[in-house]
Amino acid sequence: MIDCKKILSCSLGDIMRLDFGNEKLNACMLDGEYGLEVESQRVNEQGQLAQTPNPEWKDPRIDLDFCESQIELITGVHTRIEDLLKELHELQAKVAKKLWHREGGREFLWHCSNPPWIAGEASIPIAQFPDEKKEKETYRNYLAEKYGRHIMLYSGIHMNYSFPKTFLEAAKEAAIDFDATRGQFHNQLYLQLAGQVLAYDWLIVYLIAASPLMDASFYEEGSKPRTIPPRFGSHRLSEEGYWNYFDPILEYGDIESYVDSFGRLIRDGKIRSASELYYPIRPKNRGVFSLKRLLELGINHIEFRMIDINPFLTEGIAKEDVLFLQLLSLYLLAQNPEPVTAKDQVAYIARAKNAASYDETEVFIDGVPIRRAAFAVLEDMEQFFLENGKREVVPVISYQKEKLTRENGRYCERLVHEFGDAYLASGIQLSGERARKLMEEG
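Structure (tokenized):
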């Protein structure tokens, strides 16, 4: 049997552990605040990247990402996941209606993290911005030169998660042998969680991976549409995915050390700005993210950045997966981690990349096959919540277990089973049908 406590460790200063048996903390432990950022490519009816300018949306919740064809939908903050997904759905319907009636021809959003067929690098138009935002365009040109345009076509989902005020106040009272001011406590809680999530990034990647299929044109300039056999459960999180060209080392001892270690990457010329650190988890301040604002305002939430678009759902993410990330966070805060070295941080990232493999037969976590390791953690999580009287969350954990026990249970397995070698054709059909339904709603 795998030792879950052995897996769990992160780079921290003073270790904080929460007693969820505390009456106040236990009463509000399932309260949370959620926000989503969902990227998607605009495509035409042939499944090619749209070559038209991005429509003028006049809605701050609809933005551009790397290229002119890549839309990002940004929800507000919600305390109920149902409301979160409802807002996202409404945004998708608004976009679908406008794209469906485009003067230059019908378009819709591509419901996969991997891009569709790519006519060539020239068909990947970098996002255009007005003069007052020209620096954004300059930055994207820099990324294109450094990483290439193809790799920037990946689309994914970022989930922002924060603890409400009642939870933070109760957690401060329930902290075991950890004395700090309110601001220091909040920052340390999020920093410690970020380090712990990094140690468990492999589990999230393994359970939520949903981008196993890729068109050959991603690798072969000018290639005709052809599906590459699956090598990764998630291309964008694999060794060939969305990563920096070096192994980032961050300090989690306190917010000053964290910001300094982050800033050192910029000072050393490894990255140009904070946005260029392609890291699976990121503590963030409220509003526009910057290291200066993070230090001044403190940490407001953490951002989970390792979520593939789920093609089987209009919203691209299951309610159960949003809840799972919250439950995992609570579970990790209840553990007793040990400090870890810079070498261990590198190992955690490498382990997450390995977890993105489609063929899991050679993927091990501390010597244990990854499927067994994942199931053991889920069992331990279930026991933790049952011990704290939260039986109502067991179905969420069971949902994750079923991915491991059911044939083609993981999203990536189901996608390969249903799409086969027809990635482009199946993607066009799925995205087109989804767009029609959304358009009719909008």
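The longest strand covers residues 33-44. The longest helix spans residues 81-100.
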